[in-house]
Amino acid sequence: MSFPLLATGWLVLMGGADGYQAVCALPEIDSAFAVQTILLADQLDGQPLPAKNAPYQLVVPLEKQPVRWVRQLTGLRVVKVYESVTLPRIALP
Questions:
Q1: Contact by Cβ (8 Å): 80, 9
Q2: Contact call for residues 71 and 57 (beta carbons, < 8 A)
């Protein structure tokens, strides 16, 4: 994956069987940009995942709260963000 692709606003949408959805910016899962590893797990401590999490769970280990941990993962989708957002200028002292 090259830098121009990552720099143009791509997201990864992640969905679970219960309807829960989370999102990551594509650079967050590229080791060239991020220090953390995002895991796609099918085991916990060498054993199959518990039924409530199986068959796959997406885990973002360094997050303080597991808001992007998706259990019973049903899909991953890479999408392009088309909307351009301009942030207001903030006057700094």
A1: yes
A2: yes
Sheet holding 21-25, edge to edge: 21-25, 10-16, 73-80
Query: Of 37, 34, 75, nearest to 55 (Cα)?
Result: 75
3: DSSP letter: H
| Helix ranges, 1-93 (H) | 3-6
Tokens 């791509």 map to which residue?
10
What is the pTM assigned to this prediction?
A: 0.72
Report pLDDT digits (tens) over 52-86.
999 999 999 888 999 999 999 999 998 888 766 66
pLDDT tens-digit series, residues 13-24: 999 999 999 999
26-44 burial: b if 16+ Cβ within 10 Å, else e: bebbeeeeeeeebeebeee
